[in-house]
UniProtKB/TrEMBL annotation:
It is found in: Membrane. Its EC number is 3.4.21.89. InterPro entries: LexA/Signal_pep-like_sf, Pept_S26A_signal_pept_1, Pept_S26A_signal_pept_1_CS, Pept_S26A_signal_pept_1_Lys-AS, Pept_S26A_signal_pept_1_Ser-AS, Peptidase_S26. Belongs to the peptidase S26 family. One of its GO terms (molecular function) is serine-type endopeptidase activity. GO terms for cellular component: membrane. The active site is at S56, K109. This is Signal peptidase I. PANTHER family: CHLOROPLAST PROCESSING PEPTIDASE (PTHR43390:SF1), SIGNAL PEPTIDASE I (PTHR43390).
């Protein structure tokens, strides 16, 4: 008698969980959120990018330069002042700060006067405590003579670009043809001396308005200093210009 062959029992494979659409998206969203948090932390406490809007700092910085600001270099430490001493600000170094007349706007200039300094300008050149200050970074392009700009603090006439509050303060603090930088304040100027609205026009920069020190130009849309604007440059020449524009700031 032939035995009836029974089919072998096949064990069912374990059911695979159904992966929802959101299961694949959530890890990516989490990664993006982590990157965003790190970027915000970096820009808030460590460094921030910025762009040069005018030619007041030429030739050190040109219009179209993008630079990175070290916010830990000279920015006030707030609640940590009692634990960590505030970083020292040196004469001749570049600083980024909140523009006193418009605190929501950041500017970059060079520190010329420190607290306690006696300052005045003669023919556009800075005199510090009566002696000429060596400024290899300063340039003096041809411009019409301007008594207020070149012989600051000249009280004979006001410039239309002078902040009225600063003009009123100047009338109180100028003595013997010079000003004395108050405690906790800095006198800043642009390297392009004849084309810079700086402390001459709106006053001192408070210590707590300092944002940080510029570190490096990481990208530049500016043409090379001696480039002929009438000559169309090739793609590769433009790329080379961008690369050569990367530089450390001093």
């Amino acid at each position: 008698m032939n035995e009836e062959l029974l089919p072998e029992t096949v064990e069912a494979a374990p059911a695979r969980p159904v992966q929802g659409v959101h299961d694949g998206v959530l890890p990516h969203l989490q990664a993006l959120l982590e990157i965003l948090v790190l970027a915000i932390f970096f820009a808030t406490f460590i460094a921030q990018p910025d762009r040069v809007p005018s030619g007041s700092m030429e030739p050190t910085l040109r219009v179209g330069d993008f630079y990175l600001v070290n916010k830990q270099a000279c920015a006030p430490r707030g609640v940590f002042d009692r634990i960590l001493p505030a970083a020292t600000v040196h004469r001749g170094e570049l600083v980024v700060f909140h523009y006193p007349p418009e605190p929501g706007k950041d500017l970059i200039k060079r520190v010329v006067g420190l607290p306690g300094d006696h300052l005045r300008l003669r023919d556009g050149h800075v005199l510090l405590d009566g002696a000429s200050l060596a400024e290899p970074y300063a340039v003096y392009n041809q411009a019409q003579p301007d008594g207020f700009r070149d012989d600051f603090p000249s009280m004979r006439s006001a410039d239309p670009n002078v902040d009225p509050r600063w003009w009123a303060e100047l009338r109180r603090i100028v003595a013997n043809g010079e000003i004395v930088v108050p405690p906790g304040r800095y006198f800043v100027m642009g390297d392009n001396r004849n084309d810079s609205e700086d402390s001459r026009y709106w006053g001192f920069v408070p210590r707590d308005a300092l944002v940080g020190r510029p570190l490096v130009v990481y990208f530049s849309l500016a043409a090379p200093p001696n480039a002929d604007s009438s000559v169309r440059r090739s793609f590769w020449e433009g790329l080379r210009d961008r690369w050569q524009g990367i530089r450390v700031l001093r």
